[in-house]
Amino acid sequence: MGNSIRPVSENVSYIATDNTWIESKAIQQLQTTANLPNMVSVVGMPDLHPGRGYPIGAAFFSTQHFYPALVGNDIGCGMSLFQTDINVRKLSLDKFEKQLLTLSDIASYEWLNEYVPENMQEHEFVTSLSSIGGGNHFAEFQSIDKIIDNELFSKSGLDKKNALLLVHSGSRGLGQSILQRHIEQHGHNGLDSNSLDAMSYLNAHQDALHFAELNRQLISLRMLQHVHALGEMKLDINHNLVEAYTFKGIDGWLHRKGATPADRGMVIIPGSRGDYSYLVAPQASDKSLHSLAHGAGRKWMRTECKGRLSHRYTPLQLARTNLGSRVICANKQLIYEEAPQSYKSIETVIESMKNAELINVIARLKPILTYKTSGEFA
């Protein structure tokens, strides 16, 4: 296990092999975060990369206080996996792409009125429900490319003949509004967990978690309706959240920023939009703060991607991947920012977690078609 667990200081470590791309700035941000009052332990995952002040792809455990700024502005961001009834062998990719090119980024008021639960109809951000959003969010149809552990796969409830739909999205503008309100009142300071302000934040945080989970369900429903298919949710897990937690017998608060919980059953670790994803069974460990990577992790800053790639690839070329999949992304800036070249290799991320004995790999999933945006902005 020691080969992949890299200690930085007494309470800071990160998970990586020699092949894993880890920026020094991200490690510096781990150390900065570890110096916050009441911070006990900080662990960077193999997809660790620098964020705006705080690292992404990391877990943080504190006592007595928790830090909304560590969770960030997309509370409840996570992954949902749906088993569809789309037979992979019978699928015409050209026809499938043509169908999804006509999907709107946002739902009509009529659709929302019909499918949003009654108790959410008056929500301030109801019009954002069933929308993916920008950045690294996506909805991706996938096939089961390779089964690695037959026994575990048999327990997954997945059908290898039919396509899967993986949805990555969060709480949209709701999470941003919650963080903004906190920063206006408290800056980046933490909250005393026994205070009224802490209770207020946690109530809003819970609302955002519920909103994000519902949003992913509605994204899948609207997409599957559009291609005349059915689907069933097989897993759903948030990777941006804070929760009460007991770590090594100590009661406190576990923050996850781009870190997948390792104590809730099977999870998906997706690659970039031209790479494989992996279905894995976590092995919960204190050394990783019971967390895993949430994806491949960025290698390049968004601002530099187009400059690095535009002389080599057109947007149309980036919409066709080396694995034969398609990408629908009408935003010509975003398609460069989300190009596979701007992300780490998912294989090195998986290798790091395997070497640290944090996961058992169940299956490898191959992208068929990734939907990001039709060009509208929700």
Automatic annotation (TrEMBL):
Residues holding Mn(2+) 1: 74, 137
Enzyme class: ligase
GO biological process terms, semicolon-separated: RNA processing; RNA repair
Entry keywords, A to Z: GTP-binding, Ligase, Manganese, Metal-binding, Nucleotide-binding, RNA repair
Binding sites annotated in the UniProt record for Mn(2+) 2: 168, 239
Classification via InterPro entries: RtcB (IPR001233), RtcB-like_sf (IPR036025), RtcB2 (IPR017510)
Catalytic activity annotation: a 3'-end 3'-phospho-ribonucleotide-RNA + a 5'-end dephospho-ribonucleoside-RNA + GTP = a ribonucleotidyl-ribonucleotide-RNA + GMP + diphosphate
Active site: residue positions: 294 (gmp-histidine intermediate)
GO molecular function: GTP binding; metal ion binding; RNA ligase (ATP) activity; RNA ligase (GTP) activity
Cofactor, free-text remark: Binds 2 manganese ions per subunit.
Protein name in the entry: 3'-phosphate/5'-hydroxy nucleic acid ligase
Organism: Providencia sneebia DSM 19967
Record lineage: Bacteria, Pseudomonadati, Pseudomonadota, Gammaproteobacteria, Enterobacterales
